[in-house]
Design a protein that fits this description.
Layout: E1 38-43, H1 47-55, E2 60-68, H2 77-80, E3 88-95, H3 102-111, E4 120-121, E5 124-125, E6 132-135, H4 140-157, E7 167-170, E8 174-176, H5 184-187
Length: 205
């Protein structure tokens, strides 16, 4: 991981213009969002595939591709790919906890990628593909940790001996990615779905 003092300088202006809307559902990608909704930022490999999974989950209001966990302000995709920003490709998930509780949302997250792979997912290698959960409320932390422990037990029961390497931290900044990355697989249905999975369900059979 690049140290903050060695990270690229970035820029003061965001790379996604204000007012962007979701290509699939027409809802806003940026706040303000309706009252009563919650948000969390999830990273599980290339954000194209992870975002596609979550915009289809009932109770999810909107999703957006972006960058989190690094030091460079308002990075571009090309900068993130140099591994000199510290960011991982991430997805902002805005959801209604009355429809889908955080635990069930995280169940989708854990089983939709392989959280034991460290700085990679599938054939994608680099710090920008690391698994991470960035919380937006201190009350989310206990649920994230509980679901992590549960999924580790499920992995071990399935014979997976590797530890979970997912970074869990409070969200510092979420930087929206460029417009062409937003809902990429809805715009390009035959595009590369480059997330992988451990093949272990969160729920016992």
């Amino acid at each position: 991981m690049v140290s903050p003092d060695q990270a690229l300088p970035g820029r003061s202006q965001p790379v996604l213009a204000p007012g962007a809307v979701h290509y699939v559902n027409g809802r806003p990608l940026q706040p303000p969002f309706p009252a009563g909704l919650s948000s969390i930022v999830l990273a599980g490999g290339c954000f194209w595939g992870i975002e596609e999974i979550f915009w289809q989950v009932p109770g999810v209001y909107t999703t957006a591709a972006g960058y989190a966990g690094g030091a460079t302000p308002n990075p571009t995709y090309e900068e993130v790919c140099t591994a000199r920003t510290g960011h991982t490709e991430s997805v902002l998930v805005v959801f209604d906890p009355e429809v889908i509780p955080l635990e069930r949302l995280l169940a989708v997250f854990w089983q939709s990628h392989d959280p034991t792979l460290g700085m990679r997912q599938g054939n994608d290698v680099g710090t920008q593909y690391r698994s991470a959960v960035f919380t937006t409320d201190p009350g989310q932390v206990a649920t994230v940790r509980d679901t992590e422990r549960h999924y580790l037990e499920r992995l071990q029961a399935a014979g997976v001996d590797d530890p979970i390497t997912t970074e869990i931290a409070p969200l510092d900044h979420f930087y929206w990615a460029e417009h062409y990355h937003q809902q990429y697989l809805a715009k390009h249905p035959n595009g590369y779905r480059c997330h992988s999975a451990a093949g272990v369900s969160y729920d016992p059979a």
